[in-house]
Specification:
- The chain has about 475 residues and is of the alpha/beta class.
- It has a domain at about 65-390: Metal-dependent hydrolases (TIM Barrel).
- It is built from 15 helices and 19 strands.
- Strands 1, 2, 3, 4, 5, 16, 17, 18 and 19 form a nine-stranded mixed sheet that branches. An eight-stranded parallel sheet has the order 6-9-10-11-12-13-14-15.
- A hairpin with a 2-residue loop joins β7 (about 75) and β8 (about 80).
- α3 (about 145-155) packs across α4 (about 170-185) and α4 (about 170-185) packs across α7.
- The longest helix is centred in the middle third of the chain and has 18 residues, at about 225-240.
């Protein structure tokens, strides 16, 4: 591809940036045609290019893939503040060019029907490309395995199960049914790992004692509850030979359980989220309002757990980094009628996650840039059937690119974010190094704070059932 570079004009040339992949960093120009990368060279004559973007002084990164978002979800009596339009808008401003959102199976509903419902909801507004996982709430129909196979063939080869959280928690028998269906269909099973029985028991005891404030949230959902669930479901998955993906790993105990499961032969992947890297449980006892804003499940942990997560990111024990973006309004978080158990869990993070990880991870020397690219882009693409179309900067890949200025200084505030939520636990956080331009399939969507993309430009992604074990390709 280096010969006759200008035989046809480029739609876009990104020039003079430091291009970062999992292999390393090199200064190069990138030529884009029809939404794909067609040339990567030391220099491209861009005189006939339709558009030229100077990346001088910037890192050029593969567009981030957030494999864990909750846009347009209903949890109990609460609906998330962000739908697909506002959520993907915020994602684009944050350097995320692909999301894999969770849709929720209603009781008795086919998985394919849940997929189609969310796809219809997403397509008019999505500003970046999107895929879907299905949260399984009812695996009881006799046709469930056939339904899961149809969902995988429709481009959604991943489902999620819960071992806690009312409305979503499955029995052990139901979990085994899901795992057996996944084994037959090549589907990855995502796991929200908390032991529901222990969480319910501790919650009842605390509330009976009058301990209802947000300071008691960590006591109701301790690291032990997370580790118990990981150990149990990993043992099931190992027995049945099913790949398991543990979402939002929060604690050292859970990481140890994952390491033990892998040593026993399990194919287990670990994801962590920004909340656990940048906040700790001290926020719950320091301030009721800020603590409620930072309520999430599992809850924030102590600084020792936080250190273990950074170690896991650096070593490869943790493969992916995703937000679990679940946004609410302040009036919902601060409802005085709610105990710690009723405060909606989660908050907005797609706009801030990539810049914060660069600042705290790469700039401060916790992880190298290659590892940053792996956990934000390459590994989620590999685990969830998007590689090499997504997750890398290579000839033939989608031109999903993010320009990150290592010198850009940002102070986070609720007013400056694009989420519809007015909740911002990171308010006042200062970062150096931030995404400044986002290019998705060769189209400049965000440039230096200006929105250039349009609602509905995002495509639904038909993901492939990746060959197992995926971990042999992601350097676990």
């Amino acid at each position: 591809m280096t010969n006759n570079l200008n035989s046809r004009s480029f739609d876009l040339v990104v020039s003079g940036g430091d291009v970062a992949t999992i292999e390393g960093v090199r200064t190069a120009d990138i030529g884009v045609r029809d939404g794909r990368i067609v040339v990567i060279a030391e220099h491209i004559d861009a005189s006939s290019a339709h558009q030229v973007v100077s990346a001088s002084g910037c890192l050029v990164l593969p567009g981030a893939i957030d494999a864990h978002t909750h846009f347009g979800n209903q949890v109990g009596d609460h609906g998330t503040a962000d739908d697909y339009e506002s959520g993907t808008l915020a994602a684009a401003f944050g350097g995320i060019t692909t999301v894999i959102n969770y849709c929720i199976q209603q009781p008795g509903e086919a998985l394919t029907a849940a997929i189609e419902r969310d796809r219809r909801a997403a397509e008019p507004g999505a500003m970046v490309d999107f895929g879907l996982h299905v949260i399984v709430t009812d695996p009881s129909p006799p046709s469930f395995t056939d339904d899961m196979r149809a969902a995988a063939e429709a481009g959604c080869p991943s489902v999620k199960i819960f071992t806690a959280v009312d409305d979503f928690m499955l029995s052990d028998a139901a979990i085994l049914r899901v795992l057996r269906a996944a084994r037959s269909t090549g589907v990855v099973v995502n796991l929200h790992a908390e032991d529901g029985a222990l969480v319910h028991d501790l919650t009842r005891e605390l509330i009976a004692q009058g301990k209802t404030g947000i300071a008691f949230l960590p006591h109701s959902r301790p690291p032990l509850a997370e580790a118990i669930a990981v150990k149990k479901v990993a043992a099931y998955a190992t027995t049945l030979g099913v790949p398991l993906y543990i979402v939002h790993v929060s604690s050292r105990a859970a990481l140890q359980a994952i390491a033990e499961a892998r040593a026993a032969g399990a194919e287990v992947y670990a994801e962590t989220r920004p909340a656990y890297l940048f906040l700790d449980d001290g926020i719950y006892s320091a301030d009721e309002e800020r603590g409620r804003f930072a309520a999430c499940w599992p809850p924030l942990r102590d600084t020792e757990d936080q250190g273990a997560l950074w170690d896991g990111l650096r070593s490869g024990l943790i493969q992916t980094y995703a937000t679990d973006h679940t946004s609410w309004m302040a009036v919902e978080k601060l409802d005085p009628e709610l105990t710690f158990a009723g405060v909606p869990g989660g908050f907005a993070n797609v706009e801030t996650s990539i810049g914060m990880l660069y600042n705290e991870g790469v700039r401060l020397g916790r992880i190298p840039i290659e590892r940053f690219v792996a956990v934000t882009a390459s590994n989620p693409a590999k685990v969830f059937g998007l590689w090499p179309r997504k997750g890398t900067i290579a000839i033939g890949s989608d031109a999903d690119l993010v320009l990150l200025d290592p010198e850009a200084e940002v102070v986070i505030s609720a007013d400056s974010m694009h989420s519809r939520s007015d909740v911002e636990p990171y308010a006042g956080y200062r970062a150096v190094g931030w995404p400044v331009s986002t290019i998705a399939r060769g189209e400049i969507v965000v440039d230096r704070g200006r929105l250039l993309g349009r609602s509905g430009r995002g495509h639904f992604l038909v993901r492939q059932s990746a060959d197992s074990p995926r971990r042999t390709t992601i350097g676990q």
